[in-house]
Each structure stands twice: as structure tokens, then as C-alpha cells.
Amino acid sequence: MPTARESLADAVVVGGGPAGLVAAIYLARFRRSVVLVDAGQSRIEKIPRSHNYPGFAEGVSGAEVRDMLRDQLRSYPVRIVHGFVERAARVPDGFRLDTRAGPIEGRRMLLATGVTDIPPAMPQVRDALDAGVLRYCPVCDAYEVIGKAVGVYANGPAGVAEALYLRHFSADITLFMAQGSPGLPAEDRRKLAEAGIRWNDAPVDAMRRDGERIEVMHAGARTLCDTLYCALGVTVHSKLAEALGASVDETGYVGIDGHHATHVPGLYAAGDVSSGLNQIVVAMGGAAIAASAMHRELGPAWPARTDA
């Protein structure tokens, strides 16, 4: 039975994606006691193949990146708890998390809870993602759609920026609007027209995968796209941060400083939950910064001398 001192970890990391795994590896290598809580729902699992993750010229799947990090983490004495955090609270020594596996307490905590893409209303979304005909991130993979017929599916003016971004990669861009979307302002229409981007005022009636393309139906018309980018936004998993008193912006991203610390003492955030540039390498870099800051903040923990 562990004592109260032994049961208090130096650091608790919530999230088993790239940011959480890298943070746990760093903290363990700093000789800190670490608990990683992993719900097994990282966004990285949905990446069929990334060609902008460094070191893999032929590309690498998100699952492969996750598994490599998990394998590396197993080399260190990190306690892994599978499941969700049901409640979180600040306590005198740091933080307490309630999970189905029991309570977890840590002196410092890193939130790497990520985001979830809002999917389009169409059948077989995962199959379309795996085939590369449906995509979410032009920063990640617009290079792969150079010169192709590209659609952007959005629910308002936010899709205009994505369509303009993609125009750098293809001359064949069409912006489609979801049901219930507000009309595009005149200034946005002007920008689209100047860029040579088509748009449809009639909202989309239905979408489906048609072989190696996406079929978009709208007002009786039918448009085929080689790739469709869904620009409906993301759900940011920042409820734990809010429950602990951290600030979030209007989208839900957690506010952090240059060390990835929130304004709540001892609470840090890294990865997609704290950044609008949702990239694997950005998440990993943020985790390294956060873990290093947490280690410094925890202070020295000198090992016992063996010559005493």
C-alpha cells in the first residue's frame, strides 16, 4: 500500500496523443514520477499518411507515430491509466483527478487533451479519410492536392480563408456551404472572385464518396471533387482546463505563456488544446517546452549519496 507521499506523482499528463506522450517521455527522463492518463482517442489515429512529419520521406501514418512513441515510453517507469478523467480539482499539494481506475494526484499537471474535427454529414467518413478524398488540414497535406479539383465545405465565412489558402496549390477550387450557413459578405465574395474561386450560394443537399472522388449535390446540380476539405472547425477539449480555472479563448483554446504554463499555478497545456496550428511537430515541441518548465518548477530532487 503506497504512502501518501508515494501516491503523489511529480506530474500527471492527461492525453495520450503526440503532446502527452512526448511530455511523459521528457518528464520520465528528468527522473520525475509520472502518471499518463490516456483515453485512447487521439486525433492522430485518424491520419492515414502524413508526408510533412520529419524523417519519413515516404510518409507515415498517425497510428505508426503514436505506436513508436508508446514503445519509447515503455522504456521508462511511467504509470499509464487508460480511460477518461471524470473530475479534476486543485488540492493543497497540486491536483487531484478522479478516474474509474481511482484517484490520481500530482504536484504538476499537463493537459494534452487535444481537439476533435467536426465531421461532415456524409456516409463512410472514415473510409473517405483513409482514401484521402476527404481531408481536414491543408497545412498538413495541401501539397498532395496540387492541380486537383478541390472542394471546401464550410458553414460560413470561415471557409473563405481556407479556400484562399488552398488556391495557392490548385486553380480548381470550389467553396460549398452547409445547410443553415449565413450568406457570404460582399467583401468575401470579392476576394473569392479575384482569386478565381467558385462558390455556391445554394447549400449542399448531400455528399458521398464516388470511387476516388467526392460527389457534392446542391440545388439539383452535381459536382465531383478529387478532394474535399471539411472546414467546419473543431471541438476543443478544454473542459478540464476550465474546471481548474484556466482561461480559454472564444474558440476554446487554453491560454498559455511562452513556457506553456496557464495562469493557474502548476497547470500547463500543450498540443492542439492550446494552439490553433494543429500540427504533430508543433504539439511535440510544445510538450518538450512544457515538460522542461515543469521539471525546473518542481525543483531539485537529488538522489541519495552512495558513499555516505
Core attributes:
308 residues, alpha/beta, single chain, 7-stranded mixed beta sheet, 5-stranded parallel beta sheet, elongated
Concise summary:
The chain has 308 residues and is an alpha/beta fold. Helices cover 27% and strands 27% of the residues.
Structure overview:
The model is unreliable at 1-5 (pLDDT under 50). Strand 12 (206-210) and strand 13 form a beta hairpin. Helix 2 (18-29) runs parallel beside helix 9 (280-298). The protein has helices at residues 4-7, 18-29, 62-73, 125-131, 138-141, 158-166, 186-195, 239-243, 280-298, and strands spanning 8-14, 34-38, 79-82, 85-91, 94-99, 102-111, 115-117, 134-135, 150-154, 173-177, 198-199, 206-210, 213-218, 221-225, 227-231, 234-236, 267-269. It is an alpha/beta fold. Strands 1, 2, 3, 4, 5, 6 and 17 form a 7-stranded mixed sheet that branches. Strands 8-15-9-10-11 form a 5-stranded parallel sheet. It has a 3-stranded antiparallel sheet with strand order 12-13-14, with no helix packed on it. It starts with a helix and ends in a 10-residue tail after the last helix.
